[in-house]
Design brief:
heterotrimer, A alpha/beta (423), B alpha+beta (161), C alpha/beta (889), B: 161 residues, alpha+beta, Arc Repressor Mutant, subunit A, Glutaredoxin, 2 domains, C: 889 residues, alpha/beta, Ubiquitin-like (UB roll), Alpha-Beta Plaits, Rossmann fold, 39 strands, 26% helix, globular, binds flavin mononucleotide, binds iron/sulfur cluster, binds FE2/S2 (inorganic) cluster
């Protein structure tokens, strides 16, 4: 079912109980940290991550090693913030890592800390991860007890702490600067960039912000090397990636595949295809935050041939983002689907900037009347026009993302909108 | 207001951060624990404990959905009806649940004050639909019968208590 | 370092770090903004200022810009429009603000903002001076495509406390108000609650919107969301006449605009003056003007006949005064006459007042030190006041402040903003006081001394500075006398010994002294709560304060923090013209300009105690709670109101208020500033200076002053400190270019006239002047033992004659009470609000207790200048603290 002989990230699927620290260490756990502390200089850790071409799994796909190398030398303390906010609709991969394979993430965090000279890390989880974070705290306690965290880790002169922190229900806190504000005890609203967190981050100190999955990739890279890692994936999108599959498939769930695997494999082999023999109408490759891609009968060409890497999905007119694939079959009313996402963005707009605050509200208002039968001529163009007025003008990407479902659903399914306006 | 024990708990948490203000969400969670919502007094207590203005803490409470100022049921039942879940029948599941509990279709609090039911956006469990969080605990792959049994269990627990 | 960039084809050369919006302003291009305000940290929230920005493509290897085929730099455009309010300029940057794209973005943002904004301009107070209205006309869409019925509806008249009203529908969530409160006022009592479209401005403080600076938010709110309760619905902006004036409530000298309508003040707003008040005023200044139009104003001269005060003509009243004075002089000599003038009178009036007594009557019996002024006397600033050109708004990292014995937030609010602002910009702040004050939150070192030991603390600091050799090596050896003697004297005052007396740990003394001594610039602000211990045996309290003033002078002198801008001393004196009163010799032992009088006259207490037979009082209430001395035969009072002093007068002469006349004040930093008349005089009231002039003429003097300007011209001739000052100069508007660079985005329908005052130089600025490091023994530290220390701090919202008439401030006025720590309250067994009895010197009073976290143990505080003057009645005139007994009851 999988294109991988063994999982790189979802190792619990091959090694039961790997969340137990003893099982983890029996299977090579913390060897990468041991190797780094005894044989590698901090820069070498960054270099191997760079050479592996690991790209951020939180959505933007920025090369992790490059980000680490932005941390200025000589400014202390340095912080790491692990983004476990995971609030994008259709995304549930970080939670599985935290629940089932936490030590690999913890080891990844420690490696990152060693590479950038950080003193402390905060794992920021969405408030709803209260339960999963109980287990994470247990894993952290175990790691402290075994000397993988805390003072003089593995008898080196490297000391480092990891703390957990829970948000309280706000999608925007996944945006890295809003996350930092929230962690500092303020409203979770995004900051201006530049300066970027690598220069001025948590408590105004240099800070690496990385996604859970990104950091979970680091131990195998350090242990086996960049070359080994690059056997998976494509040249520009190396490695494996967890794809969150939801919606109209027989077997929704997380599937780890090498980047560049075909969408067909994900949906048909892994997900068991669209149930009931119904046609695939559309997919959302990155939750609500990227354009909809139409299924074979609605768009040109066969979407199922799409190669699942950052470049190809972008070339197809969308984004891989956090790889949360929401599948919709032929029964789905696309105006309804778009209005669900419009509601999501209106609900989650932080209110800081006017185009997002007012625009998402206005868009939902138009959807309301379309859906309750009082759509007016011109409403479809009005939606497009509001989207144009928001596009490029918002403070952060939340507002920019919010126009994606509106525009792409109109682009591919305009007739469904027009039917509501006329009727 | 925070009790003595809660103050101590908060003091432990404060050790994690170089700046007291960072503990505002943890402190509010502590203050909210007893009732599932925050009174103005609770908020003032947190503000004083962390040396932040009451107004700022109030604003924070208003910003985050998991912090509440309105009285709620003993159990907050949050059902995800966001797009991925809705594609797998979550909206109908939610509507039926409300109906069985005698609540209007958009949810609300049961007359006995035991359950506050609400539809929420994505909970990061879209592969285990229908699902709910009850007081932030995951209940997944639900059916009507399963959630009824779970709610019955909670009802019994609170009667016993 | 400057940077050159191109904006719409115009070249601008501006300092590095300048924001695009400011650079554009300098070449005459206005980029529309809502959330941006030059005084606040940029946030880039409203997106109104979006522009297209490109930067030259730079060859990494050479560092040179890459050129195209035509030899022009290749510009790399940002893919999205950028906010001009957050982006700093860079070399070669190209900015476009006049394209169709930018116009479309502006229209888009305005359309978004208007989807949530009501169309109630015709009834909105901001109408006519509203940035949203203006920018909508200029850049906005003609019609709204948003459904009117879908607009959100929320509270239209939501009271944010007693002073400010919020219209939530109008708010565009620019966060100017909340940022002002947390960044500038340091009172984070406003915030945006909820998120998305539900976001709204709230205040949960008690009282709501608890800040001395709340009114400023109504000025900077770019829509009609925040309005003052005072001005709401009273007038339309275009019906107002706007007069440049000054605030008369404290010594800061904030520049104001009186907006009048039909002979009444409709509102008071700040007038920009970067070196004094920037663009702010406090709420006392804004809302405390209602006394002007009070029905209780005196409008006719009154003469006491058969024990009754009856109306008289000016001629009769003045003749009566002149003949009584003449006969008393003939019978008892000139020194049987005396005069007390209040330090809220303008310079010209004070000058003529003392000149009248000294030259027309022939006595030095003149003083201003009564009431709040009785707390301290200041000539320190004459020698070592802050250098001319000092601008607290622009100091930062290399400057250290020592604020000792002053609660700036209460005593001089805008000075508080500026010192707190300097700390925010990196200045080192040391606060020293007997109790914590609001400024402590911003301070790097806060030292808590026992009341009465401020001088000892300073000696300890001087000890450390001399020991560590942190003296100003350039200036000190050449200019200063007495260094060795001082060194010998402070040798005894090591921090360990000082710690025992003051209660401040020796390490803290050391650290603070070093932080002060090591700075490049140093400024000391001292206030009434540092002054000497008035135990009733040490003469007047201002004499008791001398050792402290000397220690302050010594501290800045030996560190070399003198004679330069942003160095020296500011005395936090109580009244609008306390500085002028000291400058102009309204004291018995000094002539104008700090020239010693050969034969000092009687001071206020001596005059009041029976030292004179006739007393002239102008703008002061020295007989509040005091009965006339038997010796006093004749009392003349020039006043606005029938004060307790006036009630005992033989003749009352009705005076004009500040708003009704012109004149000058000298502020705490020695800026002489002019104000213009804005209101008609009520009834027959006259400016004080004309009353004095007429009396002088009746007594035979050939005083021909025709205008206030003429009096100032004479002062400029006669007093070296005021040399070169002229009325014309003082009303000169600041140059157009400075006005441009200062232009503040606020909703004002008018260009308020910005004026720069003139500042007199302190003695230390004369490089040839020698400075003396005199030694005065510190006062004996207060005895410990039974009882409490009673302190009488000054509060902003006091119960004085003027403020008492501002109904709007009613609930904020401080009611008489005794504040004490919770520990002492527990020990005494009193709860908040229960009665406490305080007694000293055979007097006792009972007041409700207020348990207050800011009062240290062993101290009780009763604010000064409250209704009924309870603190003064216990302490006697002018004392700040004393030992008292406190019991329940
Ligand atoms: C609105 C918004 C929400 C986001 N939510 C998440 C999230 O839940 N988890 C996450 O890892 N990154 C999220 N991101 C991306 C982060 O801003 C950031 O790019 C990421 O944490 C960096 O980590 P990475 O480089 O390892 O991907 C979000 C971004 C935006 C604009
Ligand atoms: S009340 Fe005025 S200043 Fe405050 S956020 Fe609203 S529009 Fe801005
Ligand atoms: S975003 Fe620049 S003025 Fe508001």
């Amino acid at each position: 079912m999988s294109l991988l002989a063994e999982h790189v990230l979802l190792r619990h699927r091959d090694v039961p109980h790997i969340r137990d620290i003893n099982v983890y260490t029996n299977h090579g756990g913390y060897d990468a940290l041991r190797k780094a502390l005894s044989d590698m200089r901090p820069e070498e850790v960054t270099d191997v991550v760079k050479a592996a071409g690991l790209r951020g799994r939180g959505g933007a796909g920025f090369p992790a090693g490059v980000k680490w190398s932005f941390i200025p030398a000589g400014v202390k303390p340095v912080y790491i913030v692990v983004n476990a906010d995971e609030s994008e609709p259709g995304t549930f991969k970080d939670r599985e890592i935290i629940e089932a394979n936490p030590h690999q993430m913890i080891e990844g965090i420690a490696l990152c800390a060693y590479a950038v000279g950080a003193q402390a890390a905060y794992v920021y989880g969405r408030g709803e991860f209260k339960g999963p974070f109980v287990g994470l705290q247990q894993a952290l306690d175990d790691a402290y007890e075994k000397g993988f965290l805390g003072r003089n880790i593995l008898n080196s002169d490297f000391s480092f702490d990891i703390y957990t922190h829970l948000g309280a229900g706000a999608y925007i806190c996944g945006e890295e600067t809003a996350l930092l504000e929230s962690l500092e005890g303020k409203l979770g609203q995004p900051r201006n960039r530049p300066p970027f967190p690598a220069q001025v981050g948590l408590y105004n100190k240099p800070t690496v912000v990385n996604n859970v999955e990104t950091l979970t990739n680091v131990p195998p890279i350090v242990l086996h090397g960049a070359q080994w890692y690059r056997q998976f994936g494509t040249d520009k999108s190396p490695g494996t990636k967890i794809f969150c599959l939801s919606g109209h498939v027989a077997r929704p769930g997380n599937y780890e595949l090498p980047l560049g695997a075909p969408l067909r494999h994900l949906i048909e082999e892994c997900g068991g295809g669209v149930p009931g023999g119904r046609a695939l109408k559309a997919i959302l490759p990155a939750g609500a935050s990227a354009p909809i891609l139409p299924g074979p009968g609605w768009g040109t060409g066969d979407i199922l041939d799409l190669s699942l890497d950052y470049e190809s999905v972008q070339a197809a007119g969308s984004m891989l983002g956090s790889a949360s694939f929401i599948v919709m079959d032929e029964t789905v009313d696309m105006v309804w689907a778009a209005s669900k996402m419009a509601h999501f963005f209106k609900h989650e707009s932080c209110g800081k900037c006017s185009p997002c605050r007012e625009g998402t509200y206005w868009v939902e208002d138009v959807y309301h009347r379309l859906r309750d039968g009082s759509g007016r001529p011109g409403d479809v163009d009005l939606l497009l026009n509001i989207a144009d007025q928001m596009d490029g003008n918002c403070f952060c990407l939340l507002g920019e993302f919010s126009v994606c479902p509106v525009r792409s659903s109109i682009q591919h399914f305009r007739d469904e909108y027009e039917a509501l306006v006329k009727g | 207001m925070l009790s003595e024990a809660e103050h101590q708990e908060l003091n432990e948490i404060l050790k994690k951060y170089p700046d007291k203000r960072s503990a505002v969400l943890p402190a509010l969670y502590i203050a909210q624990r007893a009732r599932n919502y925050l009174t103005d007094d609770d908020i003032r207590g947190v503000a004083e404990a962390l040396d932040i203005s009451v107004t700022e803490v109030q604003a924070i409470v208003g910003f985050y959905t998991l912090l509440r100022k309105d009285p709620t049921g003993k159990y907050i039942v949050q059902v995800c009806t966001d797009l991925p879940c809705a594609l797998r029948g979550a909206e109908e599941f939610y509507r039926r649940l409300c109906q069985r509990l005698g609540l209007p279709p958009q949810g609300g609090t049961t007359d006995d004050g035991l359950f506050t039911v609400e539809a929420v956006v994505c909970l990061a469990a879209c592969d285990k639909v229908p699902l709910a969080q009850i007081n932030l605990k995951y209940y997944e792959n639900l059916s009507d019968d399963r959630i009824d049994a779970i709610l019955d269990g909670l009802r019994r627990d609170s009667e016993d208590a | 370092m400057t940077v050159t960039l191109t904006i719409d084809g115009r070249q601008a050369t501006v300092p590095k770090g300048t924001l695009i919006v400011e650079a554009a302003k300098q070449v005459g291009i206005e980029i529309p903004v809502f959330c941006y305000h030059p005084k606040l940290e940029p946030v880039g929230m409203c997106r109104m200022c979006l522009v297209t920005v490109g930067t030259p493509l730079v060859n990494r290897a050479t560092g040179q810009s890459q050129l195209d085929a035509d030899g022009l730099p290749i510009i790399r455009w940002f893919p999205k429009p950028q906010t001009a309010c957050t982006m700093s300029v860079s070399e070669g940057m190209v900015v476009i603000t006049d394209s169709q794209e930018v116009a479309a973005d502006r229209k888009a943002i305005l359309e978004f903002l208007l989807t949530s904004h009501p169309l109630d301009c015709p009834v909105c107070d901001k109408g006519g001076e509203c940035p949203l209205q203006d920018l909508t006309y200029r850049h906005g869409p003609g019609v709204s495509r948003f459904d009117y019925d879908s607009k959100h509806h929320s509270a239209k008249r939501y009271p944010l406390g007693d002073l400010i009203v919020l219209d939530r529908e109008r708010c565009i969530l620019c966060a100017r108000c909340t940022r002002f409160q947390s960044e500038i006022a340091q009172d984070p009592v406003l915030a945006i609650e909820n998120r998305g479209r539900d976001a709204r401005i709230v205040s949960y403080s008690n009282p709501v919107f608890d800040s001395h600076y709340s009114g400023n938010t109504t000025d900077i709110c770019p829509v009609g969301a925040l309005t003052s309760r005072d001005f709401r619905f009273h007038a339309r902006a275009w019906e107002l006449t706007n007069i440049p004036s000054l605030c008369n409530h404290c010594g800061v000298g904030c520049n104001t605009v009186l907006s009048t309508r039909r002979g009444q003040i409709a509102r008071i707003m700040p007038r920009q003056n970067e070196t004094v008040n920037e663009v702010w005023i406090c709420d006392k200044g804004r809302f405390g003007h209602h006394f002007n139009s009070s029905p209780y104003r005196l409008t006719m001269p009154l003469i006491r006949r058969d024990g009754e005060l009856v109306e008289a003509s000016w001629d009769d009243a003045l003749q009566h005064v002149a003949s009584r004075l003449t006969s008393i002089i003939e019978a008892h000599g000139s020194d049987s006459i005396g005069g007390i003038a209040g330090a809220c009178l303008p310079n010209e009036d004070l000058y003529l007042f003392q000149k009248f007594l000294r030259e027309v009557i022939g006595t030095h019996n003149v003083d201003h030190r009564v009431g709040l002024s009785a707390t301290f006397e200041d000539d320190t600033v004459y020698a070592v006041g802050v250098g001319t050109g000092t601008d607290l708004g622009r100091v930062g990292r290399d400057t250290a402040f020592l604020v000792i014995g002053s609660d700036l937030d209460q005593e001089a609010p805008i000075l508080y903003l500026r010192v707190a602002g300097a700390a925010r910009h990196g200045a080192t702040l040391i606060t020293a006081g007997g109790r914590p004050t609001k400024l402590d939150k911003q301070s790097n070192h806060s030292l808590r001394y026992r009341y009465g030991t401020a001088t000892h603390l300073l000696l300890g600091m001087i000890h450390v500075i001399l020991e560590a050799n942190l003296t100003g090596n350039e200036t000190v050896p050449h200019r200063v006398n007495g260094l060795n003697e001082l060194r010998a004297n402070v040798a005894d005052w090591a921090p360990e010994r000082v710690a025992e007396i003051t209660g401040v740990p020796p390490d803290e003394i050391r650290a603070a002294a070093r932080a002060f001594g090591e700075a490049k610039n140093g400024i000391v602000l001292y206030g009434p709560e540092g002054l000497g211990w008035g135990n009733g045996t040490q003469g007047t309290s201002w004499e008791a304060g001398s050792p402290l003033r000397q220690a302050v002078a010594n501290l800045v002198t030996l560190t070399g923090f003198i004679g330069r801008p942003n160095n020296g001393v500011i005395a936090v004196l109580p009244h609008a013209n306390s500085r002028g009163a000291a400058d102009l010799g309204v004291v018995p032992d000094r002539l104008p300009g700090y020239v010693p009088a050969e034969r000092p006259g009687l001071n206020a207490q001596e005059m009041l105690g029976g030292g004179v037979r006739a007393l002239l009082v102008a703008g002061a209430d020295p007989l509040a709670g005091v009965t006339l001395a038997d010796e006093l035969e004749f009392l003349v009072v020039q006043e606005l109101f029938l004060t307790q002093t006036a009630q005992q007068a033989d003749v009352i002469l009705p005076a004009a208020a500040l708003a009704e006349r012109d004149g000058t004040f000298t502020n705490l930093e020695r800026w002489v500033q002019r104000f213009d008349p804005g209101l008609p005089v009520p009834g027959q009231a006259r400016p004080d200076w004309t009353i004095i002039r007429q009396l002088a003429v009746l007594l035979g003097a050939d005083w021909a002053y025709a205008t206030v300007g003429g009096v100032l011209a004479e002062m400029a001739q006669a007093i070296p400190l005021y040399r070169g000052m002229s009325y014309e100069q003082l009303s000169q508007p600041v140059s157009l270019s400075r006005r441009m660079s200062h232009y503040i985005y606020a909703g004002m329908s008018f260009q308020a006239e910005m004026r720069e005052g003139m500042q007199w130089p302190a003695l230390a600025e004369d490089g040839s002047a020698k400075l003396e490091l005199d030694w005065l023994d510190p006062p004996a530290p207060p005895a410990e033992g039974d009882g409490f220390t009673l302190v009488a701090p000054r509060v902003l919202y006091d119960g004085g004659t003027l403020l008492g008439q501002a109904e709007i401030l009613g609930t904020r006025l401080v009611q008489p009470h005794i504040a004490l720590s919770s520990a002492d309250a527990a020990a005494l067994g009193v709860l908040d609000g229960q009665g406490l009895q305080v007694s000293a010197n055979g007097q006792s009073i009972s007041l409700p207790a207020r348990v207050d976290g800011l009062v240290p143990q062993g101290v009780v505080a009763i604010p000064r200048n409250l209704k009924g003057a309870p603190a003064e009645s216990l302490l006697g005139e002018g004392r700040i603290f004393s030992r008292v007994k406190v019991v329940k009851g």
